Structure formats: structure tokens, C-alpha cells
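Components:
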Amino acid sequence: SAVISQKPSRDICQRGTSLTIQCQVDSQVTMMFWYRQQPGQSLTLIATANQGSEATYESGFVIDKFPISRPNLTFSTLTVSNMSPEDSSIYLCSASEGNTIYFGEGSWLTVV
Amino acid sequence: QKEVEQDPGPLSVPEGAIVSLNCTYSNSAFQYFMWYRQYSRKGPELLMYTYSSGNKEDGRFTAQVDKSSKYISLFIRDSQPSDSATYLCAMSAGGFKTIFGAGTRLFVKA
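Structure:
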């Protein structure tokens, strides 16, 4: 199974600032995904990231707020822009292998 | 109606009990079924993966899929306090769209 590393693992951010989360996979994968999990809630897909093309965003998420890069088959970044307290959440990077999805440890962001 | 329904709990059981966690779904196209365990403030960890109907056993964990009833279950035998976590069911029809349940919080009391 793919091993996925994320950083930062947690951060406290000031309102109005932006933060970039990095995700590294230990093997080449075609599809990477970014999820958000708000406290006590299930997972919400933000976007799907393919290498060499623009990310595909789910309803309610836009590129200006959550720009994503996917420069190669093992790495992706998610930026949370112009943060507000409503963006306080766990952000999870994941990758698919066959028909299963593996997750990183998550990045816990608190916006103050 | 949500595509996947999962009781959020919490479910509290004594150590050693058999735990039954369940999800129902509405999309008959789902063929791939997963269970994830998530500890507090950690990423979900894949526990079980099942294709189509039937049972799959791995140690103390058994996953069951009943496609005719659109119902999946995860059984935990001899539950331990270390099993205390949130358990998420997930399913897909193939491809890359995976739907997650809300997660059931489980507490196993020593």
C-alpha cells in the first residue's frame, strides 16, 4: 500500500493568510485527492489532482480558494488561501491504488 | 437521501465484546467496499477491502457485504480499548469516485 506523508501536521494560522500543505507519496500514483474533514464530520472531497493537468474541483470548492499543484507522480500541494475560521479543519491528502484509497496523516489547521 | 448511511453513534461496549458496525447504501452500482479506522486527529487507515458480495476475515475483523440488501457490516471480535476510534465505511462503483459514510465513533471500555 502507498505510504503518504503530509506536512505540516498541524498549524495555527492567522485570518487572511494562506498556507500550503505538501503531500509526498512513496510510489508513483496516477490519482491524488484532497479531502477536508471538519470537526466531527466525515470526509468531503475538495478536488482530484492528476499529474500534468489542472485539478478537478468538487461543487463548493474553487481554484482561487484551494489552488492545487501536481508537478509529478509522487507529489502534490494544496494551498488554503485567505483563511477564515471556517477553514479550520483537517486536510487530508490521499492516493488511489487500484480501487482503494490510502490517506496521509492529515494536516490539522486552526485559523484564529 | 444520502448515498451512504452510517449511524454516527457513539457506540460504547465493554472490552471483549463483539462489535457490529453497519452501513446501508442506495447505489446498486457500488462494487468495492472499504472500512477505515480513524483515531482522533489522524488520517483514516484502511482496515478492510471487499469486492462484491461475501465475507472477508482478517484477524479479529470480519467484513460482510450483502449487495441484495445494500448493506455492509464490520464485525470486531474480542474488542480492545485500542479499537476505540471512528470507523468509516466507503464504497465505489470503480473509477475514482469514493463515497464515505459519516463514521461511527466506537468506545471500548476496559
